[in-house]
Write a structure and sequence with these properties.
Elements: E1 9-12, H1 18-29, E2 33-38, H2 41-53, E3 59-63, H3 71-82, E4 90-93, H4 108-132, E5 141-146, H5 159-179, E6 184-191, H6 197-200, H7 206-215, H8 224-235, E7 246-249
Parallel strand pairs: 1-2, 1-4, 2-3, 4-5, 5-6, 6-7
Helix pairs in contact: 1-8, 4-5
The chain binds NADP nicotinamide-adenine-dinucleotide phosphate (NAP).
Length: 256
């Protein structure tokens, strides 16, 4: 099955690296016009050069720092300019930050920062997406939220992060219920341990890496592509009757 997205407009937040980059790449390869975001112009430029080398010219970039709430409205205006006034068909709320602070050391600013990027920004972006999306017989609207399996277990090391991702799961289900009649499906992917910058340092320690791999039923860490393949499926016509789902892509981690 090879889904095509010719003529579709896609926004992937945090498309400069890791999972977001893999998702943007899959959509671009399948014919979509894609806007990716990064926090700095230099990161964005480096990533866009990679796409140009692959002749994927329909990928454009915008600087967006989701920790600055006011940036979101003006961001959406710029997105529509890049898509020549056309509406966005697919929104991937991918950008996120990790946090492993123990309870005793947590400060209020830090909670606000993690919640702002991981939860409040996706809510505001989803609002902007829903407001501009016009359902037509030929159009299909889709929001894909990148949550985490940390939303499903109570790891003291992932307190704020886990709560923010549990919030994303609820957001997914609530929006699925209220936006379905508007022709928008909303689903979440819960990655397990994926090899990206976010986790690379931690798993560069052989004992930590081995302990993880030993307990995973599939005995390996995942890649951005593992997440991206599900993202394109969820956004496609083939997934036309799927909404409100929280799907783990975790090598079987949650089975334990
Ligand atoms: N890797 C894993 O094992 C794993 C597991 C479960 C869930 N996830 C989730 O998957 C998503 C992507 O993670 P990843 O592993 O690909 O992370 P990553 O490699 O650290 O990339 C994070 C992306 O988010 C962007 N970003 C960071 N802070 C931002 C901010 N304040 N405003 C806007 N964009 C910001 C980054 O942009 P810059 O390049 O400008 O910094 C980058 O594009 C996150 O939501 C994460 O929670 C990851």
């Amino acid at each position: 099955m090879y889904q095509k997205f010719d003529g579709k407009n896609v926004v992937v937040t945090g498309g400069s690296r890791g999972i977001g980059l893999a998702i943007a790449h899959q959509f671009a390869k399948r014919g979509a016009r894609v806007v990716i975001t990064a926090t700095t112009a230099s990161t964005l430029e480096t990533t866009l050069i990679l796409f140009q080398h692959e002749k994927l010219q329909a990928v454009k970039g915008l600087v967006l720092d989701l920790s600055a709430p006011l940036a979101i409205d003006s961001f959406w205006d710029k997105v529509q300019e890049l898509f020549n006034g056309e509406s966005v068909d697919i929104l991937v709320n991918n950008a996120g930050i990790s946090d492993e602070t123990p309870l005793a050391e947590i400060e209020s600013e830090q909670i606000q920062q993690v919640f702002q990027v991981n939860l409040i920004a996706p809510i505001l972006l989803s609002k902007a997406f829903a407001a501009q999306f016009v359902s037509k017989p030929t159009s299909f609207g889709s929001i894909i939220n990148i949550s985490s399996i940390a939303s499903r277990f109570d790891d003291p090391n992932h307190l704020i992060y886990g709560v923010s991702k549990a919030g994303i799961n609820k957001l997914t289900q609530n929006l699925a219920k209220q936006l379905g009649k508007q022709g928008i499906r909303v689903n979440a992917i819960l990655p397990g341990s994926i090899d990206t910058d976010m986790t690379r340092e931690k798993y560069s320690h052989p004992e930590i890496y081995q302990a993880l791999v030993n307990r995973l039923p599939l005995s390996k860490r995942g890649t951005g592509a593992d997440i991206a393949h599900l993202a394109v499926f969820l956004a496609s016509r083939e997934a036309d009757y799927i909404t409100g789902q929280l799907i783990a892509v975790d090598g079987g981690w949650l089975l334990q």
